[in-house]
Amino acid sequence: MTYGFDDCTFTSIGTSTTETRLNSDSPLRVPSSAKSILEIIPYQMQTGAFTVDQSLMTAFRVQSDDASVEPKRFVLYGVGTGDASFASVQCPVLKAYPMNIPLSGFERINYRAQALVANTVAGGVGASIVYSDSGSNGIEQFYQRPDDESASGTTINTRQGGNTITVTGGGTISSLYALVTGGVATASEHDVGFMEFESSDFQTSMPYRVAVQPTATGLGANAGANTGGAGIMEYSMPAGQGIPLNDNVTINTFYTNRDGRTGASNFIGCVRYQR
């Protein structure tokens, strides 16, 4: 087995919430010898100055007219900014998203990104693509998310309903992803709490309440809002221990914040599954 790596060119996704094709608006051609895409490692950054109270919350999608890859709709790590003239921004650790997409070689793959919250200055997104010349490491992975993020509410210990996730033809959910990014950054007010994934279509009665990655906001007028870890929480389940699904599943998402907030944050969930 030989691995290869290619770069999907970092591309501005603009200031609105319109989806943009990356790689300078071109598909990325698979090498002739590649037999699978094992992983995708996206990266993002602001293309200029960060703006007060405007955090990065971005969705990613993989699509192709040459290969059956969809749905692969997931969310990237969050990047917090801060209040007033904040002095620093923390960029979380990059995260690999398993794929195991079977290939023949030479396929054209489109990588697309979309800001879920509009920004004054455009963000940009790229990705490292991991290939193998001897097939995949296992079963192909699929991803699904709501079409948009939800506002979290401001009252402490209050459960806020989010948008739904629809999975069609799924078999088993193997990972849950939870993401919260700040709206208005206020000194000493933090993002901390848990998300819930609920569905009457789950073939189990187990609960799925998972902590989000906390974001801590500093003290005073120059408070920065820094998100730790990978900027997004992933809860993976071993093979045979995931969430069994009906053929058509609607998943309700909720967020409960554990710190009172002057301004609402934004939250979104995502699932990874196998057919």
Q: Quick summary of this structure?
A:
The chain contains one helix and 22 strands. It has 275 residues and is mostly beta strands.
Highlighted features:
mainly beta, globular, single chain, 45% strand, 1 helix, 275 residues, five-stranded antiparallel sheet, six-stranded antiparallel sheet
Tell me the radius of gyration: 19 Å
Task: Output the structural class.
Answer: mainly beta
Outline the biggest β-sheet. 6 strands, antiparallel
Q: What percent of the residues sit in helical stretches (DSSP H or I)?
A: under 10%
Q: Topology, pairings included?
A:
Blueprint: E1 3-14, E2 20-21, H1 22-25, E3 28-29, E4 36-46, E5 58-64, E6 73-75, E7 97-102, E8 108-115, E9 123-132, E10 142-144, E11 150-151, E12 159-161, E13 165-168, E14 172-181, E15 193-198, E16 209-211, E17 215-217, E18 225-227, E19 233-236, E20 243-244, E21 248-257, E22 266-274
Antiparallel strand pairs: 1-9, 2-8, 3-8, 4-7, 4-9, 5-6, 5-8, 10-22, 11-22, 12-21, 13-21, 14-19, 14-20, 14-22, 15-16, 15-21, 17-18
